[in-house]
Structures are given as structure tokens and as C-alpha cells.
Amino acid sequence: MLVLDANILIRAVPGSQVRLLLRPYAEHVEFLAPDTVFQEAHEHLPLILERR
């Protein structure tokens, strides 16, 4: 089991590096994230994507 934080989720959306790092483990590990992590990502992602 691997618990993801908001930074990991936020970096996984616009980029590919995080996804490339996590993909090899997807078949062997369960990824979890608390609801607060999704709330934080939802709050910060629009501004981050706008700046890009």
C-alpha cells in the first residue's frame, strides 16, 4: 500500500514523470489518498494549470 499526498497527485495531472515513476508499481501496490488530498488538489490545480 502506498499513500499519495496532494503534491504527488497535483504533479501527476499535467506532467508525465510522476505517472512514469508510479506505473511500474501499479500491478503490485494499492495506491490510496485521503479525501483531504483530493480537496487540496482540486483547490490548487486550476491555478497551477492556468500558469502553465
Distance between the termini: 32 Å
| Helical content (DSSP H or I, runs of 4+) | 55-70%
What does the largest sheet look like?
2 strands, parallel
Q: Name the overall outline.
A: flat
Secondary structure tally, helices? 3
Output the keywords.
single chain, 52 residues, mainly alpha, two-stranded parallel sheet, flat
Topology:
Blueprint: E1 2-3, H1 6-12, H2 17-22, E2 31-32, H3 35-51
Parallel strand pairs: 1-2
Structural features, described:
α1 packs across α3 (35-51). This protein has one domain (2-51). The protein has a two-stranded parallel ribbon. It has helices at residues 6-12, 17-22, 35-51; strands at 2-3, 31-32. The chain is built from three helices and two strands, in the order βααβα. Helix content is 58%, strand content 8%. The model has no long low-confidence stretch (mean pLDDT 90). It is mostly helical.
